[in-house]
Specification:
The protein is α+β, with helices and mostly antiparallel strands. The protein has a single domain, classed as Alpha-Beta Plaits, CATH 3.30.70. It is 36% helix and 26% strand. The chain is built from four helices and five strands, in the order βαββαββαα. The protein has a five-stranded mixed β-sheet, sandwiched between helices.
Length: 151
């Protein structure tokens, strides 16, 4: 992971499950995505959280700006995603999910206590869950979305 003085970027995006991925069960699709992203994220010094439910993904990625941008480009080209929408992109002083190359929650999972530690992590977890349940417009109605728009 970068040192404390290295610049960090955070993005929040949402996408829908692509029609070309409908042949996969939800669990198989998520496991496939997590398997690839955890390996890439470790190599690219990225961390984040993926939430999935009702055919929608919401994710935050954090890390070096060039690596975050490159990974987002990869996601936009991934045939398992469509209707990819960037909801937030900004420098961040610290990671919310520094210990996870890619944490995962379904939209119904209980939120582990360790996921809500510091740096507005819980607000971000609740935001991703709201976006999965309510679509991109739900971002602005969350506390993290409101903070991001005020900044």
């Amino acid at each position: 992971m970068p040192g404390p003085s290295a610049p960090l970027m955070r993005i929040v995006y949402t996408s829908r499950r692509s029609p070309s991925a409908m042949h996969l069960e939800d669990d198989a699709l998520v496991e496939q995505i997590l398997g690839v992203s955890r390996v890439k994220n470790a190599t690219w010094r990225l961390s984040g959280l993926l939430v999935f439910g009702a055919g929608r993904f919401a994710q935050t990625l954090e890390g070096p700006p060039d690596m975050v941008a490159a990974m987002f480009d990869t996601i936009r080209q991934d045939e398992r995603h469509h209707d990819v929408r960037l909801l937030h992109q900004a420098p961040t002083p610290a990671r919310c999910f520094a210990t996870w190359t890619m944490a995962y929650l379904s939209d119904l999972d209980m939120i582990p206590a360790e996921m809500g530690i510091g740096n507005d992590a819980m607000a971000l977890v609740l935001t991703l869950r709201a976006v999965v349940r309510g679509g991109p417009a739900a971002f602005a109605t969350t506390s993290f979305g409101a903070m991001a728009q005020a900044a």
